[in-house]
Design goal:
It is an enzyme of class 3 (hydrolase). Its cofactor is Mg(2+). This protein is an alpha+beta fold. 35% of the residues lie in helices and 23% in strands. It is globular and about 50 Å long. The structure holds adenosine-2'-monophosphate and calcium ion (3 copies).
Length: 291
């Protein structure tokens, strides 16, 4: 069943408390400057994890499981992940922007989302270094530290600041050519300016509060975008797939924009570069054999 308003309020309180507790742990790590010491590679040299990712995930899940024992959980650092179903599911990225975190950049955050029937209904994003806590519940607006936020409303690429992300799941030739192709195209368009981000969650809340006009990426997972989707949409922004279609949490692709007009302009360019599929290349560009 869909949670009542009362239940959603309680879940929001718990998610906020969990995100703040997690943020404090991240700040302690910044103060100690020891993230680098616990870096491990997962699937490739661009896919990293630290002991803090695991510690944060543990403390967040503990709280969420106590608050809602019946809910399913989908979290990045948990092995044997469950598939997203229609059941209420906490979707958690303990540290989004791990590489930024390791390099002591401010652009990393804790992401806690709640999905019901595969749709995001509640989102919390905490950026501890900026002391910015973003919250949103479907139909009730988006907030940063308790104050309403709205997207820039930017409708035209020529005045847009757009973030793209360097491919992290592969550096094979097809994937590299695609990012270079879209960059060349957007720079020639001309777009106002382009930046490279390192945290899907931070970029999404930046679109929500009007610091950034758009962000797109292929290769993301539900935990990268669930919380941010609610925050962006409640701030008047748009989440769709990179070709302009309806957003699907599990599709591995996202296009976020400050307005529907900007989203459709960007989608035209992304379509020209087939910006939709996760190519079957490994990190070095070899095509893995089918299992
Ligand atoms: P993470 O830091 O939680 O892993 C950056 O483009 C975005 O992609 C970040 O939100 C980052 O989240 C995610 N990311 C980093 N490495 C990745 C990988 N190897 N595969 C898929 N996503 C990755
Ligand atoms: Ca990761
Ligand atoms: Ca992530
Ligand atoms: Ca992560």
């Amino acid at each position: 069943a869909v949670p009542s308003t009362e239940d959603l309020n309680r879940y929001l309180d718990e998610a906020v408390a969990a995100a703040q507790e997690a943020g404090n742990l991240m700040l302690e790590c910044f103060a100690r400057n020891d993230a680098q010491a616990s870096v491990e590679e997962k699937s490739s040299p661009a896919d990293l994890v630290t002991k803090y990712d695991r510690q944060v995930e543990e403390l967040v899940l503990k709280r969420l499981r106590t608050a809602a024992p019946d809910f399913r959980v989908l979290a990045e650092e948990t092995a044997n992940k469950e598939e997203l179903t229609d059941a209420p599911t906490w979707i958690v990225d303990p540290i989004d922007g791990t590489t930024n975190f390791i390099h002591r950049q401010a652009e990393c955050c804790v992401l806690i989302g709640l999905a019901v029937k595969k749709k995001a209904v509640l989102g919390v994003c905490f950026i501890p270094k900026l002391d910015e806590l973003y919250t949103a519940v479907q139909g009730r607006g988006a907030y940063c530290n308790g104050r309403r936020v709205v997207s820039s409303g930017c409708k035209d690429l020529t005045t847009a600041l757009v973030n793209l992300h360097l491919p992290s799941y592969s550096r094979g030739p097809k994937v590299v050519d695609r990012i270079l192709g879209i960059s060349r195209d957007l720079l020639a368009h001309p777009i106002r300016a382009m930046r490279c981000g390192g945290s899907a969650g931070v970029d999404m809340v930046h679109v929500a509060r009007g610091r950034l006009d758009a962000y797109f990426e292929v290769g993301i997972y539900p935990w990268d975008v669930c919380a941010g989707q609610v925050i962006v949409e409640e701030a008047g922004g748009v989440c769709c797939d990179t070709l302009g279609g309806d957003f699907d949490l599990a599709s591995r692709r996202v296009l976020v924009a400050a307005s529907p007009e900007l989203a459709s302009q960007l989608a035209v360019h992304l379509r020209n570069h087939s910006y939709s599929s996760v190519e079957a290349e490994d990190y070095n560009g070899d095509v893995p054999e089918k299992a």
